[in-house]
Amino acid sequence: MNNATLLKVQARAPFELYFAGEALSVSATNKVGRFDILPGHADFFSVINPDSDIVIGTDKEDININVSNGIVCAKDDEVLLFLNI
């Protein structure tokens, strides 16, 4: 798989690292509804809905993370998720 088609993702809480690595997609929910972040996505910042699920799609398996709250920031194929803050 070509690295140009992947996202660099880091999902962390204050005292826990849930995921750090390359992914095909990140899906979450905000007050507007479900959204997906894919490679090439425009710069994006959002509050994640309370008590929702984050799905990080990788080429091996999907990583599912249930969160109490959080924020997501996407820029230049890098996605940062700050969870349970």
Write up this protein.
The protein has 85 residues and is mainly beta. The protein has one domain (3-83): ATP Synthase, domain 1, CATH 2.60.15.10. Helix content is 0%, strand content 65%. The protein is built from no helices and 9 strands. The chain has strands spanning 7-13, 16-23, 25-30, 33-37, 44-48, 52-57, 62-67, 70-75, 78-83. The strands form 2 sheets. Strands 2-1-9-8-5 form a 5-stranded mixed sheet, with no helix packed on it. A 4-stranded antiparallel sheet has the order 4-3-6-7, with no helix packed on it. The radius of gyration is 12 Å and the shape is globular. It starts with 6 loop residues before the first strand and ends with a strand. The mean pLDDT is 95.
* Helix-strand category: mainly beta
- Oligomer state equals single chain
Rounded average pLDDT: 95
CATH-defined fold name: ATP Synthase, domain 1
Characterize the main sheet.
5 strands, mixed
The CATH superfamily label reads F0F1 ATP synthase delta/epsilon subunit, N-terminal
Report the span from N to C terminus: 34 Å
Topology:
Elements: E1 7-13, E2 16-23, E3 25-30, E4 33-37, E5 44-48, E6 52-57, E7 62-67, E8 70-75, E9 78-83
Parallel strand pairs: 1-9
Antiparallel strand pairs: 1-2, 3-4, 3-6, 5-8, 6-7, 8-9
